[in-house]
Amino acid sequence: MKLLVVGGAGYIGSHTVRQLRAAGHGVVVLDNLSSGHAEALPDDVELVRADLLDYPSVKAALEAHKPDAVIHFAALIEVGESMRAPARYYRNNVVGSLNLLQAIVDTRKVPLVFSSTAAVYGTTDAVPIPEDAAMQPESVYGETKLMTERMIHAFHTAHGLPYTILRYFNVCGAAPSGDIGEAHPSQSHLIELACMTALGQREKMMIFGEDYDTPDGTCIRDYVHVQDLADAHVLAVEALNAGKTDAVTYNVGLGHGFSVKQVLDAVDAVVGTPLDREIAPRRAGDPPRLVADATKIVQELGFAPQFTDLQEIVQTAWNWHKGHPHGFEK
Ligand code: UDP
């Protein structure tokens, strides 16, 4: 197949591009490079530098490259920032996605795989969370992903657009080769922050709340390795293109979780020295447990995560950060 990967120069996008190439597919990336990195792409992958808000460029890319399917990752993803700058998030994530949908139906009406998030569920009592759990996003970021999911479904109903939506849980780790990884302008995620702390770029780790109703009192999350998530996209786009699936939504996670303390213990073991830790107040909006019910993607697409050992997951993140302490910057 030939895929147009929108947002393919970002963290999850670049790992997916790798796995698509490894599976023998052709790839063209469309990215505005606002947070992505051209260096994260293989040399034989063409990069179209364009913004989803520029409809003519998006349409022109579809007409020029004639992909068999589109995978859409391009989005702003910082929860806190989305609360401070909602217009930017609605415009970029919702209007940008609307332009992409319009361009697809105006040109080739090819299948779409969309990158969504467990943030669409918000705080839920369901443990683990199935795909049909209530959706009440608590951030503008989560809201923009849910709105895009609904637009995609409306385009399916009105125009027959085939789609698969993947809702990710806590994505982490890096390609075992250590040459691509998470390089966001602002780091907010637990494993990434712990690696930065181990590199001496931060003083210590804060544990946000030790009084949750969990075995060790800290929050539990479902940490899915970015390469396994990338493989989920390969499975999803192949099944969609073969007509085996349509209009389906899958959670992507391991189906079990690790606590903040378990993650920090794994980082200590991998790095070889314990990081300073401090117990801090709970972070607003953090549910005690967020774990995927991933049964559907396992049964229907044969999703079989390779990275289930927490230390191994952390090791891949550490290899990347140690080798690239400033991300892709020299
Ligand atoms: N967390 C923490 N200290 C940090 C960063 C995160 O204790 O410096 C906790 C956070 O409160 C949550 C878990 O780690 O319970 C995962 O947070 P992250 O931001 O990585 O992902 P989220 O689940 O918010 O998407």
From TrEMBL:
Pfam families: Epimerase. GO terms for biological process: galactose catabolic process via UDP-galactose, Leloir pathway. Its EC number is 5.1.3.2. Keywords: Carbohydrate metabolism, Isomerase, NAD. Transmembrane segments: none annotated. The keyword Lipid metabolism does not apply. Pathway: Carbohydrate metabolism; galactose metabolism. CDD domains: UDP_G4E_1_SDR_e. InterPro entries: Epimerase_deHydtase (IPR001509), NAD(P)-bd_dom_sf (IPR036291), UDP_G4E (IPR005886). Its cofactor is NAD(+). It catalyses: UDP-alpha-D-glucose = UDP-alpha-D-galactose. Homodimer. PANTHER family: UDP-ARABINOSE 4-EPIMERASE 1, UDP-GLUCOSE 4-EPIMERASE. This is UDP-glucose 4-epimerase. It comes from Deinococcus marmoris.
